[in-house]
Automatic annotation (TrEMBL), chains A, B:
Gene3D superfamilies assigned to the protein according to its UniProt record, in alphabetical order: Winged helix-like DNA-binding domain superfamily/Winged helix DNA-binding domain (1.10.10.10)
One GO term of the biological process aspect: response to stress
Protein name from the UniProt record: MarR family transcriptional regulator
GO molecular function: DNA-binding transcription factor activity
Length: 144, 144
DNA sequence: CGGCCATCATTTGTGCACAAGTGACGTTTT
DNA sequence: AAAACGTCACTTGTGCACAAATGATGGCCG
């Protein structure tokens, strides 16, 4: 019965998992409300990583850099490519791979987004004091 | 060019958004590895909330309690129902609504899962000291 | 060399998450 | 009572996230 469960004293909204999900939800709401060009969080991350990577990058490798699996990466890359923000060409030395690179358009969009991303991070952390903000980031790094 | 972006000094893996997502990912990996009965995180949360709610609950209301929108709730409820963990019946006083309730089977499964959920939370927070764990939960509450 | 195994990109299937729209029903307001 | 507005459940469409499988290719080892 319900009293059995109640006696277990488990508070859903005190669990890290529940709070991580809700915090992430709030962040993504802020992000999609401010992001120019209609990019999603992962489209931005992927584009940014590709733009700042010095050498050539394959699709799977790029996905791994932003913690996406191969199947998810495929979709994100396809959407970025459809918007002419990135380009792919066959790797000459490995017939399995495609080498990805950003387009001029992609880099221009990225430059405009970067200041906004700072603003989005600020807004997400706004309920916390500067010290708390640093603490949160430090602790999240440890459990991610 | 890349140097333009580099000079902007934006570190992706220091951003709250990126870290929230990765922390959530790790937590969900732990969860799906330990969860009995193959329930997902949201299936558990929904079932738990329904089981511990004293009065009758409609579908949309239940979804809101665990921060899901109506469209998402529909799917989660359908899967719980298909497994005979919850039941729905038409609300006599409001023809738009269905009143949800847990089945005996649902409550039994839940009772077995609760200790595991505690273990999952523990595992997720394992990299942190007890004080840090409390701090993280406190800060996450503020930004969720 | 030839077999073995890892990796690459891709596909299929399932499950959240949210936006936008629909028709049925309730409530409130005039 | 009629109109206006809100809510309920549901649908469609898009986008991540991951498991599992596939065929092509590359590296390694005996």
């Amino acid at each position: 019965m319900a009293s059995d469960l109640a006696s277990q004293d488990y508070r859903l909204d005190e669990q890290v998992g529940f709070l991580l999900r809700k915090a992430n939800q709030r962040h993504l709401t802020i992000l999609s409300g401010m992001m120019p060009g209609g990019l999603t969080s992962m489209q931005f991350s992927t584009l940014y990583r590709l733009a700042t990577e010095p050498g050539p990058v394959s699709q799977n490798a790029l996905g791994r850099m932003v913690a996406m699996d191969a199947a998810t990466t495929k979709g994100v890359v396809a959407r970025l490519q459809a918007r002419n923000l990135i380009r792919t060409e066959p790797d000459p030395t490995d017939k399995r791979r495609y080498t990805l690179s950003t387009t001029e358009e992609g880099r221009a969009l990225l430059a405009g987004i970067l200041p906004v991303m700072r603003e989005i991070t600020r807004e997400t952390l706004a309920p916390l004091s500067p010290t708390e903000q640093e603490t949160l980031v430090r602790l999240l790094k440890k459990i991610s």
